[in-house]
Amino acid sequence: MSIWRSVAGVLSPLTSDTYMNTADSIFVIIVTILTLIGFCLNFLLLYLIIWKSPRSLTPYRIFLANTTITQLLFAVFAVTSQPRVLSKHQYTIVIYLGPVQYFGSWFSYMSYVGILHLSLNSFISLMLSMVYRYYSIRFHKFTASTSIILCVLGYSIPFLIYASCSNVLVDQSVAVNNEILEGSVRNLENYNVVLSTNITNQYPLIILVLAVTIGLIPIYFVMYWCRHQIHKTLKQTRSVHSPSTRDNARRLVHALTIQSIIPLVSVFPASSFWCLAQLGIVEPTAYSYFIIPCLSLGCIADPLVTIRCVLPYRKWVLKMCHRTTSDTTSSNQEKTTIFLKH
């Protein structure tokens, strides 16, 4: 057993008896580390949203919680499924390396679709947050109940797509999958769960893939239109809004703008490679290790940007870091004093 396989077995002990080559082991190590970091950061952010948010942040923190819970679930789905996603002609083939493989083909497939629908919901949540900032600045009325209704309506779209994928036909035959991949994946028969889908006959899956890729275009359009209108409104209503209100609005819009850029380095590269593989331009076996780590970057970057740009959260984190540093320094000084006395 290689050292990479041993490390993968330690980080993901539930899959210790799963077949993995060296590349699979490195993939599992990277995905596990990224998703655990993302889970911890989003769990910290959720704590801050619930317990450290001022009352003035109440409507907006609902949108923050929506995005954060989505990213938490994404980390859970990704670390439990750890799918290698390949595409060949009109087929999508997924090799599952996570513990979900022990729950059968249906749960395995739905975990992969779950990752896609959570990615879509995170983009919708960012868009709704930007829409909230615009309407709260422009019309000054945006209640907590309205925020909850918007989040539920926003999630209803990816959820309906996700639910409609539950009856998608998949093929687990080793012979069929080997024929589709034309033998490009060695030892395919040694993997526990390998599922293929002919996407040309599966309209829910086509809709989901298009929503995660092409669907981002209208989402970006709405976000940047709202961003433009927010800055325009702030310039026109200097006498209406206080300096602190304008600064907070700009800071939050800046955070959302940064978060909207994250898909450019996470989602778009993954979807581009998927499309290129469909066209036969890119070899699918190489990029199959690329998709989930790319998507996991957003799970880490989103909470970092939010904590950095939302002032109460940043102050609390800095305060805790300063307290930890002070305690460590005091402890070292006490030890030094005791040592000198002796």
Automatic annotation (TrEMBL):
<dbReference type="InterPro" id="IPR050920">
    <property type="entry name" value="Nematode_rcpt-like_delta"/>
</dbReference>
<feature type="transmembrane region" description="Helical">
    <location>
        <begin position="142"/>
        <end position="163"/>
    </location>
</feature>
<dbReference type="InterPro" id="IPR019421">
    <property type="entry name" value="7TM_GPCR_serpentine_rcpt_Srd"/>
</dbReference>
<dbReference type="InterPro" id="IPR000276">
    <property type="entry name" value="GPCR_Rhodpsn"/>
</dbReference>
<dbReference type="GO" id="GO:0004930">
    <property type="term" value="F:G protein-coupled receptor activity"/>
</dbReference>
<dbReference type="Pfam" id="PF10317">
    <property type="entry name" value="7TM_GPCR_Srd"/>
</dbReference>
<feature type="transmembrane region" description="Helical">
    <location>
        <begin position="62"/>
        <end position="79"/>
    </location>
</feature>
<feature type="transmembrane region" description="Helical">
    <location>
        <begin position="115"/>
        <end position="135"/>
    </location>
</feature>
<dbReference type="GO" id="GO:0016020">
    <property type="term" value="C:membrane"/>
</dbReference>
<keyword id="KW-0472">Membrane</keyword>
<feature type="transmembrane region" description="Helical">
    <location>
        <begin position="205"/>
        <end position="226"/>
    </location>
</feature>
<feature type="transmembrane region" description="Helical">
    <location>
        <begin position="252"/>
        <end position="274"/>
    </location>
</feature>
<dbReference type="InterPro" id="IPR017452">
    <property type="entry name" value="GPCR_Rhodpsn_7TM"/>
</dbReference>
<protein>
    <submittedName>
        <fullName>Protein CBR-SRD-33</fullName>
    </submittedName>
</protein>
<keyword id="KW-1133">Transmembrane helix</keyword>
<feature type="transmembrane region" description="Helical">
    <location>
        <begin position="26"/>
        <end position="50"/>
    </location>
</feature>
<feature type="transmembrane region" description="Helical">
    <location>
        <begin position="286"/>
        <end position="311"/>
    </location>
</feature>
<feature type="domain" description="G-protein coupled receptors family 1 profile">
    <location>
        <begin position="41"/>
        <end position="306"/>
    </location>
</feature>
<keyword id="KW-0812">Transmembrane</keyword>
<comment type="similarity">
    <text>Belongs to the nematode receptor-like protein srd family.</text>
</comment>
